[in-house]
Amino acid sequence: MNIDLSRRGFLRLAGAGVAATSLGAMGFGGAEAAEQAHVRAFKLATTTETRNTCPYCSVACGIIMYSKGDVKAGETAELLHIEGDADHPTNRGTLCPKGAALKDFVHAPTRLTKPRYRAAGASDFQDITWEEALDKIARAMKDDRDANFIQANEAGVPVNRWTTTGFLAASATTNETAWLTYKTVRSMGIVGFDNQARV
Amino acid sequence: MTNSWTDIKNTDLVIVMGGNAAEAHPCGFKWVTEAKHHRGAKLIVVDPRYTRTASVSDYYAPIRPGSDIVFLMGMIRWMIENDKVQWDYVRNYTNASFLVKDEFGWSDGLFTGYDEEKRDYDKSSWDYKMGEDGFVQTDPTLQDPRCVWNLLKAHVDAYTPEMVERVCGTPKDKFLHIAEMIGECSSPTKTMTSMYALGWTQHSKGAQNIRGMAMLQLILGNIGVRGGGMNALRGHSNIQGLTDIGLMSNLIPGYLNIPTEKEADWATYMSTRGFKPIVPNQVSYWQNYPKFMVSFMKAMWGDAATAENDWAYHYLPKLDVPAYDGMRMFELMNHGKVNLYFCQGFNPILSFPNRGKMTEAFSKLKMLVVMDPLTTETSHFWQNHGIHNDVDSASIQTEVLELPTTCFAEDEGALVNSGRWLQWHWPGATPPGEAKHDTWIMAQIFLRVKKLYQDEGGVFPDPILNLTWDYRDPNDPKADELAREMNGRALATVYDAADPTKVMAEAGQQLSSFGHYRDDGSTMGGCWIYAGSWTEAGNMMARRDNTDPDDTGMFLNWAFAWPANRRILYNAASCDPQGKPWDPSRKIIEWTGEKWEGYDVPDMPVTARPGEVRPFIMNPEGASRLFSRGMMRDGPFPTHMEPFEAPIANVFNPRMRGNPVARVFESTADQFAAIGDPEFPFVATSYRLTEHFHYWTKHNPVNAALQPEFFVEISEELAAERGIARGGRVRVWSKRGEVWAKAVVTKRLRPMQIDGKTVHVIGIPLHWGFVGAARKGFGPNSLTSQVGDANVETPEFKAFMVNIEPSAEEPVA
To answer: Any idea where the 4Fe-4S Mo/W bis-MGD-type domain is (chain A) (predicted)?
Structure first.
């Protein structure tokens, strides 16, 4: 089809067409305006579509996310619906029982929304600001690195490694997060570095 | 994967062994259904449990967890004995004809050079006989008793169908039926694909399981062809990417290595990475290692990395042990030698083995930082949850910071799927509350530490102060900038290696190929295998053209596949030594007389002549390896090793325990049940369910409702033997811990006859913990041991010994 028409625009046109045609065919021409007021607009027609891939297994099915609001336009966007991407060569629009429930993963009641801190010996978390949390981390890293960094081995060979701090990296973050994490961890000499490839 | 999900439709036979794709990778498994429906392909499943994959198979056979090598070597033996070998492929594309040193041999289940004290091999005899010309000695007639083919024949001789039945519990007639089905794929016009996952990797000899099948595939001529290959299904959505980018103790992006202490300087480091061809005329592509390495160092440290300072070689840490992998770090933590630990989107308290030890270890940290979209058991390891996390909070002095991150719906970037496709995705939702992108968090941590070094000075600040950080907003690097950095760009004009008048890239331009990487400092690139993913033409990972000329399944213009947008690795092996496809109906590429061309990006220098240049271009042999020299710690051929806990002793050597070279920590060496220990008579194995993904979906009320509660699966026979009712509560315990669960009694597990004994298998699914929307439960890691694969330290989750008994119902609160 050589028409530059978005999927959303197409749905909007198709929906209106069906309603008008069937009413006309049944001979209720006069009631058309009143009846059309009852036809609810297709909910997703007013949403923003975004292409993404399922974050679970590494089949990496294509998905379409429907949101109220447009992130790219700088708006606040609320995710309303997720479905399989019919254009994707691997999954061709299908999703499994995990992928089909993805929206509720994004809105899980146990999603984290603010930084929290657990003090030594405490039995619960307390809130902390990002500033405080990040400063605490940086201070702890600097102090531990200065105290325990190994610059050379017994033979005098520079080894520049830091073994008393470790970093476990994820399995579902982007390549770009992975690269920035790599740069940060390696530049400091951390060798206790691993990811979730094996478990 | 050597191939891709969409390529599975091209196969004639699928063998699923060491995986359960129908449940764990449902939408990928549809390509198996496609092959069955449209090509008449058959599906074989070999698994301890009659899985949902097995339920749609053409043929199923049971196998005892941890005995796969016996089955696979038995298969190779049968193929050789019955002449089901694709001879032209084996002769030309494998090392079958290469001669091996006279000192190499084996006895009592061990290869030459074993040192019991060190739990290691001296591997010097595991190599080829080299001629005076520096090339391998060969016997193309395969008559020499020291050629790889004849050694392989002798090695597999013990693995008879009777031996398979005795050790694996697979009935002989079932084994032979499968052998006949597989044997048909030795024809150049028939092919089999192997689909496997953690069922093969999570063993103390996981890497050898996979080698076993890879060798079988080579003998059948099934590597490099459409519908063939070794296809690791992989678990999480970007674990391929995180491994590609080297987020492991001993890696540099693109499968380069962090130096060891023995490599005291750049020259020494490079001296073992020359990769000169050991067969005349071969490509030996790793000869380009210095180009990839120098470009990486330039990406990290820019102008601070110069030829004069060996590209800032000493900015890299040097290892004194093979790796500070997860299990080693937890061991060090338990000894009080780790103070600060970060978990980024990772829940180790449930994912790593020996939960009790993990909790002890975490309790000795000074500070734990967890970054995650979800709250996790790891961030709550100090909180008491009754039997599900029985700790004394007051006595745990670890400070914990729990930082909220975005999830896929809210961020931008690429994930790499099992078929090596880098697919870009876009954000469609606003992060909840104060949740932040991981990139912002990492930048904040880095910049704050850097500032402390700038303000206060400190120990060896150079690699921190000089790290390249030229982002538009240093506080918040963006995905496009990071992706471009990994792809690489020219720092000075780059000329064609063959024609110095031809400019390939001007300074500042993105490189279009790793072929343009240089070792003189004129290029930078964070991850050479991703070169071509973001070129001057833009973001190749965001491409969405789903056309597929002639329905080959390649989809060359959809996203980007590493390396070089190639969809099938070793694809030159799909052609005979004249450069013509073995199976014209399954052509990928062919030799036109002047160059290689076809549906995929040729895995061969485009003008390299077939017959002269062999298709396994990464190996200095140009050939694939049926004999892997000293590349693996536990042997140049896969040999039978029992799991560390097993119902029977190793039939080759009753003194041998598990993998004889796997790392065993002293502190847990006494935590293995003895062989045949009557207190732990049952084999246990972990598995996944289709309704859940790892420990994530229990947070989703929908999935939590679909599979709400932790259970263990047992056979009707075992239920009767132990007086366990359907749906009754049971206690399962190992030498390391105990769990309580509902009993699911099924026909999917059956007792097996192993070496004259009846052996029961218990299935333990992995999905429950003590936070989230599902009922509180346990993971298999409460029971499993802290031992891993000898080569890559993947924990042995798939075969261990337990006991089971009925238990009183949980008191209703």
So the answer is: 47-110
